[in-house]
């Protein structure tokens, strides 16, 4: 039998409410952040961008649902570290996107948070001055201002939701979202995805496990209740209705998985699980062994599968910036337009990849309307 209840000895916290949540011996409270509403008021989306984002999300969803036969191309820097250079890139990309509009829906990677395998620069929101020092308040302001300016290029924006807490600060500007290979198994991330108003790509796991991505799609398609900040900053219980436009992104792992056999196997698994019939292929990461020069080869292979009529291929992701390669985030001076995280393709090579993908989408369209057998009597 249990003895008498031992009274809990609580420290005197009445006038130090933070001490209960974040005791000084293990954490330090740096200071308050703006609420999502305060940040949005400072860098508003405005009516024109609201309508633009709504239209872009619908367009992405139509590709995911198979109602639009264009290819979705999510392309841009691994991370945004220099907003001016990223906007210069967006300007080039917007012109190419307009030229390929009939065949491709081009979405700009506008990634402001980076998931790290262990430690490293965590992105513009965390360390906007690349100074090796956290400044979330400044990062949120610089990051949101960038997203508004990038959206003004007319391009849809892609974003990896790394920290669920930060999502309400940026999500109104995002038209395609991702859960990355390092967070796709996380319940808080899947709950967030269930409440997000844009299609979400679920990456396969870092080792190449596709099942974890399929499980994430299933989880995010269901409704969930979870804790999150409301716009005004009040911690709230939020109900996600379930996101029907979630899909799998094949990014490779221990070995690549962009080849026809791997794509076919993933599509079979998706159909068996009853969660859609399409995948996006990431040409970078595990599919390029982190060698950016292997991305065009992946793009060529996927384009050949598309041109051969594979309707299960929804699109491609490419890591690309103004200049090829990458550099150490601590290097000074930093080279303009060069990634500080994963290596990227340069702009001319990227433009050729877009041409290849547009041609593949056209050939798939022609193949789908061409009669398969000669009509009787001719
Ligand atoms: O996409 C970028 C990186 O692959 C990801 O952030 C992990 O990087 P890391 O393994 O260098 O930490
Ligand atoms: C981190 C990324 O990818 P992954 O989760 O596939 O490693 C990314 O796309 O930036």
TrEMBL record:
GO biological process, one term: aromatic amino acid family biosynthetic process
UniProt domain DAHP synthetase I/KDSA: residue ranges: 62-352
A single cellular component GO annotation: cytoplasm
Keyword Amino-acid biosynthesis attached: yes
EC number: 2.5.1.54
Coiled-coil intervals, chain numbering: none
InterPro entries from the UniProt entry: Aldolase_TIM, DAHP1/KDSA, DAHP_synth_1
Enzyme class: transferase
Keywords from the named record: Amino-acid biosynthesis, Aromatic amino acid biosynthesis, Transferase
Keyword hit for Transferase: yes
Catalytic function, reaction form: D-erythrose 4-phosphate + phosphoenolpyruvate + H2O = 7-phospho-2-dehydro-3-deoxy-D-arabino-heptonate + phosphate
Pathway membership: Metabolic intermediate biosynthesis; chorismate biosynthesis; chorismate from D-erythrose 4-phosphate and phosphoenolpyruvate: step 1/7
Source organism superkingdom: Bacteria
Protein family per UniProt: Belongs to the class-I DAHP synthase family.
Function according to Swiss-Prot or TrEMBL: Stereospecific condensation of phosphoenolpyruvate (PEP) and D-erythrose-4-phosphate (E4P) giving rise to 3-deoxy-D-arabino-heptulosonate-7-phosphate (DAHP).
Protein name from the UniProt record: Phospho-2-dehydro-3-deoxyheptonate aldolase
Organism whose genome encodes this protein: Saccharopolyspora shandongensis
